[in-house]
Design goal:
Layout (H helix, E strand, L loop, with lengths): L11 H5 L15 E7 L5 E7 L8 E3 L24 E2 L5 E7 L2 H10 L1 E6 L12 E9 L2 H6 L3 E9 L11 E7 L2 E6 L4 H11 L7 E5 L12 H16 L3 E4 L2 H7 L6 E10 L2 E14 L5 H10 L9 E10 L13 H19 L3 H8 L19 H12 L1 H9 L6 E13 L6 H6 L2 E6 L5 E4 L9 H13 L6 E2 L19 H19 L6 E6 L22 E13 L5 E11 L6 H20 L29 E6 L17 H4 L1 H13 L5 E2 L3 H12 L1
Parallel strand pairs: 1-12, 8-24, 10-11, 14-15, 18-19, 22-23
Antiparallel strand pairs: 1-5, 2-4, 2-6, 3-5, 7-15, 8-13, 9-10, 9-12, 13-14, 16-21, 17-18, 17-20, 21-22
Helix pairs in contact: 4-5, 7-8, 8-9, 8-17, 13-14, 15-17
The protein binds dioxothiomolybdenum(VI) ion.
Length: 704
């Protein structure tokens, strides 16, 4: 078997025939329902909470019921399980109403009256007064390069929220046992949830059991939030002495759970002899009310702030600032889409000003194998961007279209093409894998000769069960149906780390491949066997120091090139994507179909991010777009011709040469999309999403 040859996904039939059990599907005798009372105020002191008369069996749970510490373990631990004396955003969980009837519980929750004393709130990223994280790094001599420049450019770019819009909303069930608390539900990271629950419930790790249920999508949105919800449910279940189930409505999920950080990036670039010699970049991320994952999202965002280009003199400052808005968090790309949009667009603008084609201009700046990275590490492996560009140019007939659309356009419909070049650093930033995660993976061989994969990685629709099973089956020369991969249960699986950062196949897949080789070599017919593998860091790495942002931020990179062709109706502002191309190097695809599906999905999710997914907050700090009629995501009607082409530069430390795949396809879309709209409208743009309103407004102003 060739490892890339497609197989039927492990979860295919259970999902297609409706047998998969999601957390919302569970019911049990005596199970109670929990409804969270969310703050109505962006920032206020809680003066009083007035409860209605609660019928027998109904009660509320708040911070006074927490056995341990009222802090959810994420990176820093400032997110409360239940609100402290003040609320910090419209959505903060003040308490949970719990009872046997779901509707009655909700009705009672809505009758609770909270008396607030309003406090000043920061509702705009530009008005920040608290900086959660402030990082700076650089290389070369930026001042000298700017002093010697022929020309200096300065531009500011803005990006908005993006909602993960997974099919299944957040949900958890907590079950209390005499000496244990069990929580199961929708999640990406069972061991993150376990650590958080242990702290809040003040119990030992062996007294907490976390199980993933079938999960309807994550996209980063189930990296940290499930830890918060699991803690709330666990506290309620312990108080009740009964299982407590909490399932978010779509409105709750959209208003109160994390989304992509809005950003404001200022780029200064120095150009000499037609080359960008320096960049001075200021990155501002809107973190919202609590720090959650902002430090790590910001780190990734600023590390790729200079894109795929060799900018010898570089100064980058990144800040994640507090606002009294919903905490921002992980979303496919993890900080990269914001800065890649900015750097791609600034490069396009400079090329335009210099009268050079942007593709040529950008190619002239692309890093090569052996070059220094932004953080003074190395690109240790081939950089196939020129080949990917070649492939996309040809597949999209790009240059012919670009020339054609460069001719003066006067009709109602205008056309443009755009191209972006990007990477995604595979796996955790810096030494996270070695210092924090220390992944362990196990293989359990049964007497029957069937083999069970024991890892904490979760299938959230991306196909990890299938990919990992293929790797194991391939090494053991077993049919894939003799390799089992159940939804993780922390009582059974070791901590092989979270399902994030495009790491699962590259890191955990390689551990399993090594475990499978050892099992094959020690295979004892008819006996039960257990093989365990531990993460070891590749020895070629230049150590990364987070305090200085120096060294190899990632062991390797996945690369991508996108092209977008667009038609804009200047009367209605309606854009139509005529074609979207992506050529991606994710190393060896461990299943061509799964990878192609990921690439197509990510490409479309990127088109949504660039074009229509608009989410804003009102003057009270509440998210306005809290339903799918107010928050547009691409539907089947919006799917253009998507052309995905794979290119494989094998990574020697990944299984069969595989690198990270999941996040890559979203990252580059805004850059290509905006360049296409700019060509169609013959104007410069500085923000995403570029909505129809923006187009009508911009076009109207330009033609006055
Ligand atoms: Mo992911 S955005 O690293 O959960």
């Amino acid at each position: 078997m060739n490892i890339s040859d497609p197989v039927v996904k492990k979860d295919h039939s259970s999902k297609m025939n409706g047998q998969a059990i999601y957390v919302a599907d569970y019911s049990a005798e005596g199970m109670l329902f929990g409804k969270l009372l969310h703050s109505q105020k962006a920032r206020a002191r809680i003066l009083d909470i007035r409860l209605p008369d609660l019928p027998e069996g109904y009660f509320v749970v708040d911070r006074n019921d927490i056995p341990g510490d009222n802090n959810v373990n994420i990176v820093l631990d400032d997110t409360p399980v239940f609100a402290r004396d003040t609320v910090e955003y419209a959505g903060d969980a003040i308490l949970m109403a719990v009872g046997p009837d779901e509707n009655e519980t909700e009705r009672l929750m809505n009758e609770i009256e909270v008396v607030y004393e309003d406090l000043p709130a920061v509702l705009n990223i530009r008005d920040f007064d608290t900086v959660f994280f402030d990082y700076s790094y650089g290389k070369g001599d930026v001042e000298k390069a700017f002093a010697e420049a022929d020309k200096v450019y300065e531009e500011q770019f803005e990006t908005g929220y993006q909602e993960q819009a997974y099919l299944e909303t957040q949900g958890m069930i907590a079950e209390p046992y005499p000496d244990k608390i069990a929580v199961h539900g929708s999640m990406q990271c069972p061991y993150y949830v376990k650590g958080a629950v242990a702290r809040v419930m003040a119990c030992r790790p062996d007294q907490v059991r976390i199980m993933q249920d079938a999960t309807g999508g994550g996209f980063g949105g189930k990296e940290a939030y499930p830890s918060i919800l699991a803690c709330q449910a666990a506290v309620a279940a312990r108080k009740a002495g009964k299982p407590v189930k909490v399932i978010f409505s779509r409105r709750e999920d959209m208003e109160f759970t994390s989304k992509r950080h809005p950003s404001l990036c200022t780029y200064k670039a120095a150009v000499k002899n037609g080359r960008v010699t320096a960049m001075d970049i200021d990155v501002l991320f809107n973190a919202g009310a609590y720090t959650t994952l902002s430090p790590v999202v910001l780190q990734r965002g600023i590390i790729c702030a200079d894109g795929v280009y060799n900018i010898e003199n570089l100064k980058v400052r990144g800040r994640a600032v507090k606002t009294n808005l919903v905490p921002s968090g992980a979303f496919r790309g993890f900080g990269g889409p914001q800065t890649f949009f900015a750097v791609e667009t600034v490069m396009d603008h400079i090329a335009g000003d210099l009268g050079v084609d942007s593709v040529r201009f950008k190619l002239d700046h692309v890093v090569k194998r052996g070059d220094m990275t932004s953080t003074s590490g190395r690109y240790h492996f081939p950089v196939p961007i020129p080949q990917l560009v070649e492939t996309v140019l040809e597949a999209s007939d790009f240059m012919m279209k670009r020339r054609k659309y460069l001719e003066p356009q006067t009709g109602r419909f205008r056309y443009g093409v755009g191209m972006s070049m990007i990477f995604h650093g595979a796996g955790f930033t810096g030494s996270g894998e070695r210092d924090h995660i220390k992944a362990v993976a196990k293989l359990h061989k049964l007497k029957s000769g069937d083999v069970e994969i024991l890892v904490s990685n979760t299938d959230i629709g991306q196909g990890i069960k299938t990919a990992l099973s293929k790797i194991v089956a391939n090494e053991l020369e077993l049919p894939i149906d003799r390799v089992a991969a159940a939804d993780p249960d922390t009582d059974r699986v070791p901590d092989s780390g979270p399902t994030v950062a495009s790491r699962s196949v590259m890191i955990v897949g390689e551990l399993l491949r090594r475990a499978a080789i050892r099992l094959r070599e020690t295979w004892a017919e008819g006996e039960e066997q257990l093989v365990e593998e531990h993460f070891t860091e590749p020895d070629f790495l230049i150590p990364f120091y987070l305090d200085k942002f120096q060294g190899d931020a990632y062991p390797t990179y996945s690369w991508g090139v996108n092209a977008i062709e667009i038609e804009v109706d200047t009367l209605t502002g309606t854009p139509r994507v005529l074609g979207a191309w992506g050529c991606y190097d994710v190393g060896t695809p461990i299943d061509r179909n799964i990878v192609a599906g990921q690439m197509e999905g990510g490409l479309l999710q990127g088109i949504g991010y660039a074009s229509m997914e608009q989410m804003t907050s009102d003057e009270k700090g509440r998210i306005r777009n809290n339903s799918y009629s107010d928050y547009m995501i691409p539907t089947s009607m919006d799917v253009p011709e998507l052309k995905v082409i794979l290119h494989a530069e094998k990574y020697p430390e990944g299984p069969y040469g595989a690198k990270g795949a999941g996040e890559l396809p979203l990252v580059g879309v805004p850059g290509a999309y905006v360049e296409a709209v700019e060509q169609a409208l013959n104007m410069k743009l500085h923000k995403i999403p570029v909505t129809s309103e923006d187009i009508v407004k911009a076009f109207g102003e330009a033609s006055i």
